[in-house]
């Protein structure tokens, strides 16, 4: 993978700034997401105001076309987005890392076959497949979206894991471990996973952001979870028709979505710079 | 500078060069065919995994068992799986995508009609993306120490964080609703025969795609340029007396293009697939809206047809990108897969 970050010495000065901004943005969404579990400004489905009201003290970003509070929906959106991101990455990581490690350890023939299959799967249209899976499970639910995205991500994770693990496996300390009689599971647990983990976790953060955006796209297309578990994508779809009278409704969910995605990316960038710096030092 | 040995990659003479590229093309074509087969298998499995019989889409509520039997026979879902698979692959190989359950129209013909919207949209968006990303990406790398260099790279951060449909909504709000310069969406019923209206309808959607793709492409152009700028060969060329621009154009462009081309391939594929969402924003009758409608109506032949054709296109784009890389960089020609 070509490193997209600028040269480390140029960036070292702003490493902590990047990481800090990432932690703050993601932390804000986590805090809001947790808060929605115990407290909300309004009942999410209650008609608490006039239709398409503008911003006011009672409704910070106004109301939707049925008079429901938008800020409440935005807050729930944080929780939904985090759930989707975490769920999809957890599924993608479990399947992907297992297959990647298997391919790295497999015989040459099996490895080639797996690598070629992964290349093809990655070429497959992720969003289209997710659309199909979600549409197929008769009731579109958050669960089906998470599973679909997780499976789609797993191929990318598997390919990266395989490449990283193969790089570790040619090291002298692996040969040493093997000659001293370590079993394969032990080598994976002690040598391979800890070594590839830093790079993998950065990639997980990026995948998290992609999953959140993909879920928003699904919801926007009308294939997401129904209310009250409405995501930002669904809010945007509903607000698009009334953008002339209530522009805030079409802007606020987008800002929420972008702030989370940027937060995760900054977090990933910051982590990567840190790992690079640590590697140069050691 | 005389090297103690002659650097020999694979192709010293023009003839050897041609044959190396030919050999690679053949090998890669084989991979393309195998990939297509695997994709077809995945598609088959995926469509059979869907709950319910495809025949149900043909039936109304309260169909008699005889009607169900007849529908199953018509769709072929009463056959054993291996027979269904054989028919499926056979039909695909002849590019026979069947007829729609709903409109009874030929799927291939319908896809052709829809392509006349999706393909120009993708191509135009992609063109805008490249036009923006290549000069700006190089500039932000060469002038990384200036404020505008830094500003460009900050903007590029947005590229992977911003959902394309939201950019579409914002552009519609600005240009169609507030300024009233352009239509907010739609496409003339008569298609491209009404050229003026069709072209105007393409502007905002293509701009949306171009801006988002351009921003994410920019990061890669910038990274590739930074790589080139830090390279030994560029320093050597400069030391031997080449001017900065000359060194960059003669030695840098070709080297920097290699990683960018593989990203270009991926981005082009993403653009094409992202059209599903964009077409929804601007209510364009393209391939994406065809798929969405087909999924809602459980129109299996249409779903299958769109998925197959889009996978085919994505695989062909990958093929073209791989080939282009080998044409530019002789060092890659012997290798089937480039890793890390």
TrEMBL record, chain A:
Q: Where in the cell is it found?
A: Cell membrane
Name the domain of life this protein comes from.
Bacteria
Main location (coarse class) = membrane
ABC transmembrane type-1 domain residues are: 78-268
Offer a single GO CC term for the protein.
plasma membrane
Q: Which residues cross the membrane?
A: 17-42, 80-106, 113-136, 142-161, 204-223, 243-268
Keyword list, A-Z? Cell membrane, Membrane, Transmembrane, Transmembrane helix, Transport
A Gene Ontology biological process annotation? transmembrane transport
Bilayer disposition of the protein:
Multi-pass membrane protein
Q: Which InterPro entries match?
A: BP-dependent_transpt_permease, MetI-like, MetI-like_sf
Membership in a protein family: Belongs to the binding-protein-dependent transport system permease family.
Q: Which protein is depicted?
A: Peptide/nickel transport system permease protein
Q: Which organism is it from?
A: Devosia enhydra
Its organism's taxonomic lineage begins at: Bacteria, Pseudomonadati, Pseudomonadota, Alphaproteobacteria, Hyphomicrobiales
Automatic annotation (TrEMBL), chain B:
Species in which this protein is naturally found: Devosia enhydra
Q: Which family does it belong to?
A: Belongs to the binding-protein-dependent transport system permease family.
Q: Where is this protein found?
A: Cell membrane
Domain ABC transmembrane type-1 residues, every copy: 115-325
Output the InterPro entries linked to this UniProt entry.
Answer: BPD_transp_1_N, MetI-like, MetI-like_sf
Give the GO terms filed under biological process for this record: transmembrane transport
Q: Which GO terms describe its cellular component?
A: plasma membrane
Q: Which PANTHER family match?
A: DIPEPTIDE TRANSPORT SYSTEM PERMEASE PROTEIN DPPB-RELATED (PTHR43163), PEPTIDE ABC TRANSPORTER PERMEASE PROTEIN (PTHR43163:SF3)
Q: Which Pfam families does the protein's record reference? A: BPD_transp_1 (PF00528), BPD_transp_1_N (PF19300)
Tell me the membrane topology, using the record's own terms: Multi-pass membrane protein
Q: What is its main location?
A: membrane
Regions that span the bilayer: 30-50, 123-142, 154-178, 198-218, 260-283, 303-324
Q: Could you tell me the keywords of this UniProt record?
A: Cell membrane, Membrane, Transmembrane, Transmembrane helix, Transport
What is the name of the protein in this document?
Answer: Peptide/nickel transport system permease protein
């Amino acid at each position: 993978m070509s490193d997209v970050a600028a040269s480390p010495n140029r960036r070292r000065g702003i490493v902590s700034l990047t990481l800090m901004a990432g932690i703050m943005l993601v932390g804000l969404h986590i805090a809001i997401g947790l808060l929605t579990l115990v407290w909300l400004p309004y009942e999410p489905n209650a008609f608490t105001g006039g239709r398409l009201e503008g911003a006011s003290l009672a409704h910070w970003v106004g109301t939707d076309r049925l008079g429901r509070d938008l800020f409440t929906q935005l807050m729930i959106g944080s929780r939904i987005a985090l759930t989707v991101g975490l769920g999809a990455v957890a599924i993608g990581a479990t399947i992907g890392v297992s297959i990647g490690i298997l391919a790295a350890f497999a015989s040459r023939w099996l490895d080639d076959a797996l690598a070629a299959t992964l290349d093809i799967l990655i070429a497959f249209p992720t969003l289209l497949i997710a659309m199909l899976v979600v549409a197929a499970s008769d009731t579109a639910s958050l669960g089906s979206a998470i599973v679909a995205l997780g499976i789609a991500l797993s191929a990318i994770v598997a390919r990266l894991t395989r490449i990283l693990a193969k790089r570790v496996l040619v090291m002298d300390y692996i040969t040493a471990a093997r000659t001293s009689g370590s079993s394969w599971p032990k080598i994976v647990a002690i040598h391979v996973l800890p070594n590839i983990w830093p790079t993998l976790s950065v990639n997980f953060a990026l995948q998290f952001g992609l999953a959140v955006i993909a879920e928003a796209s699904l919801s926007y297309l009308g294939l997401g979870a129904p209310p009250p578990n409405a995501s930002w994508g669904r809010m945007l779809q509903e607000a698009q028709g009334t953008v002339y009278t209530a522009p805030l409704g079409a802007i606020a969910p987008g800002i929420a979505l972008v702030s989370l995605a940027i937060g995760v990316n900054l977090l990933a960038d910051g982590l990567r710079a840190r790992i690079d710096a640590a590697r140069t030092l050691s | 500078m005389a090297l103690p040995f002659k650097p020999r990659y694979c192709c010293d003479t023009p003839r050897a060069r041609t044959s190396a590229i030919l050999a690679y093309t053949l090998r890669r074509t084989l991979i393309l065919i195998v990939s297509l087969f695997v994709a077809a298998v995945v598609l088959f499995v995926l469509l059979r995994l869907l709950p319910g019989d495809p025949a149900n889409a043909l039936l109304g509520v309260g169909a008699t068992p005889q009607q169900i039997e007849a529908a199953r026979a018509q769709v072929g879902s009463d056959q054993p799986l291996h027979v269904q698979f054989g028919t499926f692959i056979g039909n695909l190989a002849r590019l026979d995508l069947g007829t729609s359950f709903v409109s009874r129209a030929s799927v291939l013909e319908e896809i052709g009609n829809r392509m006349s919207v999706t393909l120009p949209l993708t191509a135009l968006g992609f063109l805008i993306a490249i036009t923006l990303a290549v000069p700006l990406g190089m500039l932000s790398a060469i002038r990384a120490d200036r404020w505008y260099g830094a500003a460009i790279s900050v903007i590029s951060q947005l590229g992977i964080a911003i959902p394309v449909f939201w950019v579409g909504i914002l552009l519609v709000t600005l240009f169609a609703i507030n300024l009233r310069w352009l239509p907010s969406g739609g496409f003339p019923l008569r298609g491209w025969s009404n050229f003026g209206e069709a072209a105007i309808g393409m502007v905002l959607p293509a701009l949306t795609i171009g801006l988002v793709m351009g921003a994410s492409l920019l990061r890669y152009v910038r990274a590739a340029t930074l790589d080139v700028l830090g390279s030994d060969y560029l320093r050597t060329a400069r030391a031997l007396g080449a001017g900065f621009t000359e060194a960059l154009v003669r030695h840098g462009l070709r080297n920097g293009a290699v990683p960018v081309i593989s990203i270009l391939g991926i981005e082009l594929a993403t653009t094409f697939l992202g059209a599903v969402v964009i077409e929804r924003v601007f209510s364009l009758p393209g391939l994406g809206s065809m798929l969405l409608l087909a999924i809602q109506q459980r129109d299996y032949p249409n779903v299958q047809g769109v998925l197959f054709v889009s996978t085919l296109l994505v695989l062909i784009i990958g093929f073209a990108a791989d080939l282009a890389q080998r044409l530019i960089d002789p060092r890659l020609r012997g290798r089937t897969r480039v890793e890390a």
